[in-house]
Each structure stands twice: as structure tokens, then as C-alpha cells.
Amino acid sequence: MWLGMLKSFKLVHRELQESTPKSLPENRLMLKAYCLTLSLVLTLVIAAGSPAAGQDTTPTLRDQTGNQNQDQDQSVETLKVRVNVVQLFFNVKDKKGALIPNQTKTDFDLLEDGKPQTIKYFTAESNLPLTLGILIDSSGSQARVLDMEKEVGSAFLSDILRPKDEAFVIGFDVNVDLLQDFTNDVRRLKAGLNKAKINTGGGGGSLPGLGGGPVPTSNPRGTLLYDAVYLAAHDELAHEVGRKAMILLTDGEDQGSQLRIRDAIEAAQKSDSICYVLLIADRGFYGGFGYTGDSEMKKLANETGGRMIEVGNKLDKLKDAFEQIAHELRSQYNIGYTPTNSTQDGTFRKIDLRSKQGYKIQTRSGYYAIAHEKD
User: Fold this and answer.
1) Does the structure show a pLDDT above 70 at 191?
2) What does the DSSP assignment read for 169-190?
3) Model pTM greater than 0.70?
4) Which end of the chain is more exposed for a tag (fewer CB within 10 A), N or C?
């Protein structure tokens, strides 16, 4: 389009230069065309450099960490090497959901877009370094369960993190806030969780809808769940390598996000992150309305290799859910392969990992073939 416009512009300009005084009427017409073309070019140039009026901008992650000293995490270093190898972290379970140990490389068949792949390496280590994100819902619907989430989440971090691991904390409500950036210091992570406060944007939070419930408000912006998942994946986890997971503490209701659930899932897949969802819903908050966030959260978890666990507002169920996640993260297998389709064109490739013994495989549904610059 630009090339055609520039050619027309040059043609009119040349004809004006070559015109004679005898062709004054034609000259005037060409002058008018010249001015119109120039005006159009300038208008489009200006428009190309400016965002469209009313266009939504990309969601942003607000840093609420207080710019802590940079020396807090100098012991945590991540080797950032990009090679054309696809890694799959996965669990193997029987029909009752029990984890199956002692599997080997020969126990699996691997396909990408229906084509068999050769497994290059296989490990069954439980102590591989872990990068973990905790995303905590602090919208009005969580008012009566937020303290429980903080308490059990803090205990989980104390239990799961090893010296080579690192984690971060994000809170989301009417905003998405980075409450604690990457650290292996459990004390700082707990302090980050404790920064999460109920925020309904001045709405009070006593009525369904203001903090994520199903009743719309005049300005429906209360639970930026999908934006939070996107930002955790895109801004935080995408820059890391190795074993990555995020745990969402939420009722699953999104209200006001600029992005959709599909965008959140795509960002998580592109960052190779597993998503676990602890569905924590205070049913008393919703009254007779019910809530509908579970279907989207199931999709997010299943397509990234995680799980959704319904907790309700029960302390014991929340503790048990965290224990299940800790056990799964310590019992992961890791397969690596070089795809037979080496084209890195950004398309989605479907992965099918099968157990020859008929066990259930819990892993991500696929990956995006994205070319990475060498770091």
C-alpha cells in the first residue's frame, strides 16, 4: 500500500514539473491531486505513529515491591540458553489419580501434530530447579477467604522451595500488582502475600459483581484475572528457563480484563508454564447467583499441563490441594526432543504423549514454535 502511494505521489510530482503554461487547466487538476495525495500520505504517517482513539493498551504489571535492594537474590542465577529442543514436564497417573513412579523413556510414545518424534533425553528427577509464581485474587469476592489463602500459601512456599528455586507473588483485583519479584527468600515471599488487600476500586465489596461476581456494574472492572495470568507469563516467566509453574488462588471469575482467556492460555504456553488453579469460592458471597469461572479455569489448567482443584472456602481442602501440587511438582518426569518439523514460524504444534501401559499423562497440549535470539 505504501509503495503504491509513493509511486502515485512521484508520478504527479513529475508531471507537474514537466507541464507547460499551455496546459494550465490540466495543471490545476494535477496540483489538486498532488495536494490530496500529499495530505493522505501525511495523515497515514501520523496515524501509523499514534495509537487509535479508544484503543485498549496492553495490560501492565504494577511494581509494588518497593524497589528492594538488588543484592537480595544474587545467589539465584538462571542460565538462559535457547536451543531448538522442546521440553515436556509431566506427571503419570493411574485411573484413580495416584502418581506412577519408576517410568523409563521406553514407556512412552511421543507425537507432534500426529508425527512420531524421537525422545532425546529423559529424566525422573524430583529436585530440578523450580520457578514458581503465586497469583492471589484480592477482589471483593475473596474478602472472607483471603486470610486463609495467605496462611496456607505461606506454609506451601516454606515447604516447596529449595535453595535453587525461586518464586514471585502477584495480586490482582482492579489492578495487577507485582507484590514480590523473583526471590528464594521465603520471608520476602510471605511478606509479598501479606501485601494483598481486598480492593474493589471503591465499590465496597459487599454486593456480588463488585469483586468478581456475576452481577454486572456500570463500570465492570473488578477482577483482572486473565490479564494477571498473561502478565505473569509474559513479563515474568517467559524470561526464565527450566521448570516453571504458576498457582492461581481465585474463584475463576474475570471482570474487566483487557485480554481474553485464550490470550492468557497462549501466553502461558509460550512461556512453557504449567498453571494450577485452586478454585476458592465463598459461596455465601454469591447468594443464589452461583459462579461460572470453573469452566475457563479448567481449560487454562488442562492446556498447560496443570490441574484445577475445587476448594470452596474450606481450610482443610486448601491445605490438601497445596499438598497435592507439591507432590506433583516433586514427581515430574522430563522429556526432551528435537522436532522433526524444524520450522520456527510461530505456529502452534500439538503434542501427544502416550503411555504404552495405558496410564494417564498430565502435560501441556502443545507449544508455539517461536524462534528465540541467542542470549
Assistant:
1) yes
2) EEEESSSEEEEEEEES-HHHHH
3) yes
4) N
Quote the pLDDT of residue 66: 78
C-alpha dist (Å) from residue 68 to 78, 118, 181, 240: 20, 46, 9, 21
How far apart (Å, rounded) are the C-alpha atoms in residues 261 and 250?
14
Q: Which residues, 6+ apart, have CB-to-CB distance to 134 below 8 Å?
A: 153, 157, 167, 168, 169, 170, 189, 193, 246, 247, 249
CA 122 – CA 12 distance, rounded (Å): 67
d(CA 344, CA 122): 23
CA distances from 140 to 258, 289, 295, 296, 317 (A): 19, 15, 21, 20, 21
In angstroms, the CA 260 to CA 107 distance is 38
How many Cα atoms within 13 Å fall on the side-chain side of residue 341?
18
DSSP 299-359: HHHHHHT--EEE-TT-HHHHHHHHHHHHHHHTT-EEEEE--S----SS-EEEEEEEETT--
Residue 148 phi/psi, 5-degree rounding, is -65, -40
> In terms of C-beta density within 10 A (0-12 exposed, 13-18 middle, 19 or more buried), how is residue 320 classed?
middle
Highest mean pLDDT pick, 73-77, 147-151, 291-295:
147-151
For residues 88 and 350, give the distance between their C-alpha atoms in angstroms, rounded to a whole number.
Answer: 12
Provide Rg for the chain, Cα atoms.
26
The DSSP bridge pattern shows strands 308-310 and 130-137 to be unpaired
pLDDT at residue 155 is higher than 60: yes
Question: Stretch 252-270: mean pLDDT, rounded?
Answer: 96
Chain centroid to CA 318: 23
